[in-house]
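4.2 Preliminary Data

To establish feasibility before requesting continued support, the project team ran the inverse folding procedure on a target of 342 residues. The structure was first converted into the token representation described in Section 3, and no sequence information of any kind was made available to the design step. The complete token record follows.
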């Protein structure tokens, strides 16, 4: 059986695949715009003020992507020959093409990440270097919330803050999915951001905007970040159309993240009992299912693709729920997987 043209594609590869809704496109079409490099775009200025306020920081900066937002944050915190301490499968180390090292001469000190997405505090403490000419200067600790969908435990980031203060380090939080963490945990974005000096928030993931990330922090840090943004490509002129999409998302797409989390819970519950699936986990909007082998994982995904269902992974398959995934799609996905596996 191949994918019928009447049934919508079910794309569970990532929450980045969402398309702007009609209402979001209307908001974009109506946006007041100006030249942002002159500071003249009213929609961007309003968005930056709003995001800073939401995170209870002094200032904010709109950037095209989360990767660029994280890069500019690292460049703003660290000088050439400085070091940031980071989880070895956090985005700021593993998935950003080594940008901080290549463009900033910033040395990463990666370390294994715990099962709950945190860094081991004793290892972290050991890896902070003393002031000695043999070593790079430890400058920054980089965290990630959510990591693999997991919400960072409430007290962890406070303990990292204490350690950072003892050693005179800054803390950067990659909060690509911070709104998922807020909705899932009942903490506000300000509470989740409190212990960090800077936070990068993606608007093209669960929030459903077509692009854009916002970096928040002190006025001084954001001033430096603005200069670094210029050096890595510059401002985006009339990008108020993007800011308007993001503002629309802030108005309409935050509370509904609970639906994504509920859909993920249901996927997990219904998939974990199927024969052929040997383990399954769920956190916020991410479900991971494991098959008996890489071959079986790849075969399942190839069969699903023929039926108009896109997933990502090998033996372990990641399923991400989002704005464009409906309850009916969850039903169709589970019944299709059951049929293919039987
Ligand atoms: C997606 C993601 C980013 C980067 O965002 P892009 O907009 O894709 O560059 C950073 N950190 C985490 C944890 C992410 O999931």
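Position-by-position output of the design step:
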């Amino acid at each position: 059986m191949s994918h019928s043209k009447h049934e919508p594609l079910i794309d569970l590869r990532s929450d980045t695949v969402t398309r702007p809704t009609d209402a979001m496109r209307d908001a974009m079409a109506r946006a007041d715009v100006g030249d942002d490099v002159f500071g003249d775009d009213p929609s961007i200025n309003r968005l930056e003020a709003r995001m800073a306020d939401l995170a209870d920081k002094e200032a904010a900066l709109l950037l095209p992507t989360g990767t660029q937002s994280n890069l500019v944050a690292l460049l703003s915190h660290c000088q050439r020959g400085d070091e940031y301490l980071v989880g070895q499968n956090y985005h700021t180390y593993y998935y950003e093409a080594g940008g901080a090292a290549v463009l900033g001469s910033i040395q990463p000190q990666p370390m294994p990440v715990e099962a709950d997405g945190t860094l081991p505090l004793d290892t972290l403490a050991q890896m902070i270097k003393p002031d000695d000419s043999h070593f790079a200067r430890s400058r920054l600790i980089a965290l990630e919330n959510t990591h693999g969908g997991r919400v960072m435990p409430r007290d962890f980031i406070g303990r990292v803050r204490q350690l950072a203060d003892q050693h005179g380090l800054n803390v950067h939080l990659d909060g690509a999915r911070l709104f998922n963490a807020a909705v899932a945990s009942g903490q506000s974005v300000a509470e989740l951001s409190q212990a960090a000096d800077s936070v990068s928030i993606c608007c093209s993931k669960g929030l459903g905007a077509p692009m854009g990330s916002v970096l928040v922090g002190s006025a001084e840090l954001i001033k430096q970040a603005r200069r670094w943004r210029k050096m890595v490509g510059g401002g985006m002129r009339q990008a108020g159309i993007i800011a308007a999409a993001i503002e629309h998302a802030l108005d309409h797409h935050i509370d509904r993240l609970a639906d994504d989390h509920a859909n993920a819970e249901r996927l997990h519950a219904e998939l974990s009992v199927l024969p052929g699936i040997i383990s399954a986990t769920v956190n916020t909007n991410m479900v991971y299912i494991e098959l008996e082998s890489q071959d079986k994982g790849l075969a399942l995904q190839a069969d699903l693709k023929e039926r108009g269902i896109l997933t990502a992974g090998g033996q372990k398959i990641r399923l991400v729920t989002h704005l464009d995934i409906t309850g009916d799609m969850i039903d169709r996905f589970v019944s299709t997987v059951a049929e293919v596996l039987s």
